[in-house]
Specification:
Number of domains: 2
Strand content: 5-15%
Distance between the termini: 40 Å
Helix content: 40-55%
Low-confidence stretches: 1-38, 101-112, 275-283, 394-422
Largest sheet: 4 strands, antiparallel
Number of strands: 8
Number of helices: 15
Mean pLDDT: 76
Length: 422
């Protein structure tokens, strides 16, 4: 029988693999140092490096680069047959403004957040028994200010206690060695971000990106590194974070460490007036508007507007134990968390051992490949590890239907009224 904790870590592995795949395939690791400085005459080479020619760039025509050699002869070479450096050289010469208009900003300077269970989550920023408008205004204000710990305060007290207990129970079932494996993988990921830009940028799928996208990603690079650094510290995965009463500070500290670079990415997107792509979603974090369609003391109907002005479908919100929750969450969180805790408690020692073995082996395989990426000393070694990761992503199973969760089916719960105290 496949346990809940195994399914959870399968989903975590899939998410991590997908993130790495996106990083490689859409090129969040640009390395513009590979672009050769082309003058009137430059060196051009093919993929193998065995063919080189001195020539002047003329244009990109269709899928070919048009060159004029030193004898004045016109040469057409398919773009994909050129080396990575020559491809980028051609793209820069064909559209130099695309590379110039998005100069990389100075590295973001932030005070490192000490991620761990000693983090001070502070008192709730919400007024006592807020209206839905007070609740939403406070939430959006705190998020824009880089204070994601507001989400923890937005939960009803009983929900915070149940989340704390579930995480503690899950980590106990998984075992402390699993935390050490995760710490090792994240540390290797940080090394990749900091030291392997050249190899990643030289990957053919990355080299084929449009020049404007490469320039945007180069501008965002310092913040992408900060995002990775937030999860690579040894303190993040210390077993002490997963003891009763310490999960909240750990979650809040990790979210706060991630907030600064995420907000800067959103600001960069807003400054470029990005209306599409993943940056558009980041832009939306700073520009969320809402409209209350109807409301009472116990419930409200809200429509949210994204940065592009498109409204969301109407969403029902309910007042629960001194705070407001989306209706699906209000209806299902108790049964979802209780079901997960019951399942974990029902595992036999044999099932627990099988779960640990399965998860450990999966993480060991993943860790070996990520380690190969981090320790690659040649492009060939790096590309080989990339192919291994790419082959793993489709094979990672999706989680089948489980206990009812937020947004899923589940019985309605008795909802405390407005007289509840937060």
């Amino acid at each position: 029988m496949t346990s809940t904790i195994e399914l959870v870590f399968r989903r975590a592995t899939k998410t991590w693999l997908s993130a790495m795949g996106v990083a490689i395939c859409i090129g969040i690791f640009p390395q513009c140092d590979l672009i050769a400085q082309a003058g009137p005459t430059a060196t051009w080479s093919d993929v193998s490096g065995s063919f080189k020619v001195q020539a002047t760039f003329v244009e990109i025509e269709g899928g070919s680069v048009v060159l004029k050699n030193t004898q004045g002869k016109i040469i057409k070479v398919p773009l994909e047959k050129l080396s990575v450096a020559s491809q980028l050289q051609a793209r820069k010469l064909a559209n130099p403004k695309a590379f110039e208009k998005l100069a990389a900003p100075p590295p973001t300077r932030v005070t490192p957040i000490a991620v761990g269970s000693t983090f001070d989550i502070g008192s709730s920023p919400y007024p006592r028994n807020p209206t839905v408008q007070q609740f939403l205004d406070t939430t959006l204000r705190e998020l824009k200010a880089g204070q994601p710990k507001v989400i923890w305060h937005a939960m009803p007290p009983a929900m915070r206690q149940e989340v704390d207990a579930l995480v503690v129970q899950a980590v106990r079932v998984a075992g402390e060695p699993l935390l050490k494996q995760i710490a090792s993988i994240t540390k290797a990921s940080g090394k990749i971000m900091r030291e392997k830009k050249q190899f990643i940028f030289a990957h053919p799928q990355v080299a084929a990106l449009p020049a404007t996208q490469l320039a945007e990603l180069e501008a965002n690079w310092p913040n992408l590194v900060l995002l990775t650094d937030a999860i690579t510290s040894e303190s993040v995965w210390s077993a002490g974070n997963f003891q009763s009463g310490r999960v909240g500070p750990w979650v809040c500290s990790l979210a706060t460490a991630l907030a600064n670079p995420l907000i800067q990415l959103a600001k960069n997107a807003a400054a470029r007036n990005t209306k599409s792509s993943s940056e558009g979603a980041m832009h939306g974090l700073l520009d969320v508007q809402y409209k209350i369609v109807r409301q009472s003391a116990e419930q409200a109907t809200v429509v949210f507007m994204a940065h592009n002005g498109n409204p969301s479908p109407e969403q029902e919100w309910r007042f629960v134990d001194g705070t407001w929750l989306p209706a699906p969450v209000a209806d299902n969180w108790q049964s979802a968390l209780a079901g997960a805790k019951t399942h974990l408690a029902s595992l036999t020692p044999q099932q627990t051992a099988q779960t640990r073995t399965s998860v450990t082996l999966g993480l060991a395989t993943l860790g070996g490949i990520v380690g190969s990426l981090a320790n690659a000393s040649t492009q060939e070694e790096f590309d080989s590890a990339v192919e291994q990761i790419a082959s793993m992503v489709p094979a990672t199973p999706m989680i089948p239907g489980g206990p009812a969760g937020p947004g899923g089916p589940g019985p309605n719960r008795n909802r405390p009224g407005r007289n509840s105290v937060q």
